[in-house]
Structures are given as C-alpha cells and as structure tokens.
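note to self — DONT lose this again. spent like an hour looking for the file last time. sequence + predicted structure for the chain T wanted, 314 res
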Amino acid sequence: MACEIHVIHENPEWSAPLFAALARRGLPYRDWYLESGSFDLSEAPPEGVFYNRMSASSHTRGHRYSAEYTGAVLAWLDGHGRRVVNNGRALQLEISKVAQYTALARHGILTPRTVPAVGREAIVEAAASFEGPFITKHNRAGKGLGVRLFQSTDQLSGYVEGPDFEAPVDGITLIQQYIQAPEPYITRVEFVGGRLMYAVRVDTSDGFELCPADACAVPGAARDKFEIIADFNHPLIAPYQRFLGANGIEVAGIEFIVDAEGRAYTYDVNTNTNYNPAAEAKAGVSGMEAIARFLGRELAQQACAEFWGAAAGA
C-alpha cells in the first residue's frame, strides 16, 4: 500500500498552495476532501502521515457536517496508531472557542472575559454583566463569524431580536470583553511543527475578518493589511508552545491583541492556518513551503522506504 501525505480538508482554494508546495518537493500526497464520504471501521486506514486542515467555518461553504465527519476519521486513524498532524484534540479546539479559552487558561495565557450563552434572552442577560462596550462572536466560527461590537445591552437586544441576528451553527453565542488597542492592529503568531515560524501584524481598520488567504480578501480592504514582523520575540511564545504541545496542535496561527496598559489577550487559535502571499513575498518566506518540509520529514520517519529519499531531502 502506498505511503503518502494525506491532506484532510474541505476547502480546495485554501489547500491548493500546500498541494503545490508538496508537488514541488516531489512528495507523494493524497487530496482527502471530506465534504462527504464513508469509511469502513473494520478495515485499517492507509499508511502515511495525515494532516488535518478541517476548518471551523466549513459549514459556511455548505459543508455542515465536515467537521463532525473529520472527527470520526481522526478517531479511526488514532485507533490504528497513524501519525496525525493536528489530531482529534486539535479539531476539538478548532471548532470551539470555549475549549480554546479553557485550554489556554490552563497554561496561564490571558484571554478576554467571555460568557457563553444559548438562547436570545440568555445572550442579552449575559451582556448585562459587562461594563462598557463588548463584542459577540460565534463559539464555532472562523472568518470572524458573528463578531459584532456593541455599546450597550439595548443595542444588543435590538440586534438579537431583529432579522439580522446570526444564529451560531452550534447554538452558542459568546459575549466577550472588548479589548481596545491603542493602534488598530492585532498580532498573529504562526507555528509549524510546534515551532515559531514568524509573526504577522494585521491591520484591523477594516473590521474583524482577518483570514490571511487571498480567497478571504475583503473588497476595498487595506492593501498592506498583513505585514510579517522581522525577528519577532515575545513572552507569549514559550506558553504558546507548551499549549500547542499539550493539545496535539503542530501547525497553527494564534492571535492576540494588546490593550493600552500593555496587557496581551489571546483570543483565537487557528489550527487550519493560511498565509498571506503578498506579505510572504515581501518578507521572502513561505508558510506552505515550511509545512511541506515538515510533512516531508514526518513521512521520512514512517515505514515508507520507497519514499525515504524524496522526503528526507525535502
């Protein structure tokens, strides 16, 4: 049976740059598109390395159950001892910000005060405990789903009871402390193989949709919205690495914002991370090439003698 790098995903646009990077290195890979499908639990999975790129926003592309199906596939792979990059625990955190925040807190990483709520009345009641402005967001999100800024509970009530209310796919709305940054930007820290690759300064002047991939570009947004930070160093790097290692996450982008007092609040972990081509071209780096190298090294460590040479030289 062929030994390959199996890329588990549901978004061809986001995965195409990775496939190109793998092909350039001559690495054998399988495009495992999990929009739908089936597998037999009585059979063993294929050999190789499995890279989970399932996204929390998959339901917005008409793939309502792709994340749940991926969870079943990852359980199957784990049961047979397959090498999985971003395993089932990583998927749990990808599709639940509540799971993210509780896991981050266990590693002493500060997150904004957050109250999960189910039901329109409960959302408004939860917001009443916040002083000053606050935001709402979806627990299972991606692409800034459900992120809105409110100045008062009355304003929120009008939204929640109105026709524009966005119901979360899992039913859980988060009411969250609004962190006012002195300047309109956040920092996104990228890790590959559990190690820091680079950090990106992201301009938030145009709103909360901060996905870096070209496919996510918002018309009329700032031209230089993403800028890679040279020689990035921050006290959060070590706690982030411990958090990633403890939760089966090897490839991720983690976002934080700094308030006027210098406190850094971590608010999002993206295990299906993408990269901005313009920012990378300017800095002379490539996230997808880094992932391809990492996956090639992992493939070389499997019992795949026929591909040892290609993978080891990747």
